Amino acid sequence: MKSALNYHQTMALLKFDLRESFNSVLWVGYSWFYFLFQFFVYGTLISKLVITVQNYFFYYGTGLIILSSFNIASWAGRRFVEGAHEGRLRYVLSLPIGRSEFFLEQLVVGVIVNIVRMVPPLILVLWLSGLLTWINLVSTLLVLTLVAVGIMGLMISLSVIAFKSFDIYSAIVASLSALLIRFSTINYPISSMNSLYAQISLFNPVSYGADLFRRALGLDTPLLLNPDFSLSVVAALCVGTIFLGIFFISKFVEGVKSS
């Protein structure tokens, strides 16, 4: 009886959060337009400057998809913190929903938003590259989902810092996001980096997620990291941050004062 009540409450909360996340069709359309602008305008310009990577325009497009997915995953963490400071978290915690179910519900919201926003750009990049097949589309969406879940789990886990100091949380998340993006293979392959950047990027799970995504697209090039090891890193990131998030949500998250 209790589990059934938890399920219905969780589904009701999921529907509410999804309606809130998609309350503006114009905003979703803007995210697609922004991707097109970056891809066709900035991507075209920078591809003329980067000559060390063959067909860098396509490489940049795949990196832009990973970057956009990363930003959506980071948004999921910020959304959780903002909901706490708006007073909504105290209400949610009073519902007959377990902390683990609540955390997983937040992940599901982020995953659905990520898929809706990234499917059109992904189809476009695949079509322009001549790699648009159902297998490529499904496999790349699966990799995107794994990477997004890993980043979302990390960002939501870090939200416990915001319950002590929102300023410290913002500084840590901004710094961590910059490091994860800059020291990764999102924009450049390992072979095009100087030795210091390359060594740091090898310890960055985002590098393995980006290169695994490109493997799933159908690219097979020595520029990319080992796909088997990349899959292991991404899977470990995904599973690890889920358990980390459930632990922090269960032990440390409480309602906070509205800002």
Report on the architecture of this protein.
The protein has 259 residues and is an all-alpha fold. It has helices spanning 2-21, 25-47, 56-85, 88-93, 99-129, 134-162, 166-182, 195-201, 205-217, 227-251.
Low-confidence stretches: 255-259
Q: Kindly estimate the percentage of residues that lie in beta strands according to DSSP.
A: under 5%
Q: Strand tally, please?
A: 0
In DSSP terms (H or I, runs of 4 or more residues), the helix count works out at 10
Main attributes?
10 helices, 259 residues, mainly alpha, 78% helix, single chain
Mind sketching the topology for me?
Elements: H1 2-21, H2 25-47, H3 56-85, H4 88-93, H5 99-129, H6 134-162, H7 166-182, H8 195-201, H9 205-217, H10 227-251
